[in-house]
Amino acid sequence: MTADIVEGAIDKTEPGLRAVLSAQGKVRILIAAPVVIVEAILYIASPEGVASRLIALTAAYCLYVLTLHLLVHYRRDVPAQHLLVASAVLDPLALSAWLVVIGEYGSLISGFYLFTILGFGFRTGRPLMYLCQLTAIAGFVLALLSVPYWQEHPIVWGALLLPLIAVPLYAGTLIKRLREAREHAELESQTKSELLAKVSHELRTPLTGIISATELLASESSDPTVARRTDTILALSSEL
User: Which has the least CB within 10 A, 64, 121, 139, 165?
Assistant: First the structure.
């Protein structure tokens, strides 16, 4: 596991990556609330078999969210990169499970695939985004094979699949350009800081000698003209 997996993360340290995981966890909780509401609505109108699957799926998703939360905040022995890879796979699989269970209503939440994929892209970079994308596509294909509604409406399924393929690929080029622009700006800033440090050092050394010599001259001479000139030198040196 190398840092290249999280090439787009601003802070690649363990605390920085856990901050990313924490932010993702808050999003999962925000998504879980409406998911449970939708599940309750569908439960009312669902046959007994479907209703039991909805309850089981809701319980499994809540357990998944809780487990990740505990691992991120209380298990420091589990590397953050491992958790990021796991969540990049499990997040779209959880969404795919919902699509399989709720059938035709899956088109209402299929947009969360892109929401999840792009979230990984902008937080961690392209590798995890592409991993999440591949898992999402595989899960969406599984939904086609498992749900009669999608098999009866392949054009609708294909129309929803195309953005899953095209949008992350286009976003990947934008993310790469943004990362390169940020790295270029950081390099320029570092170069400027180094230049200023060198200039400051080169100025400070001779300037200290000038100030010392001027102060000595001012203390040894009582000539008003010399005093006026030494005051001017000291004032300019102070400003510099």
Answer: 165
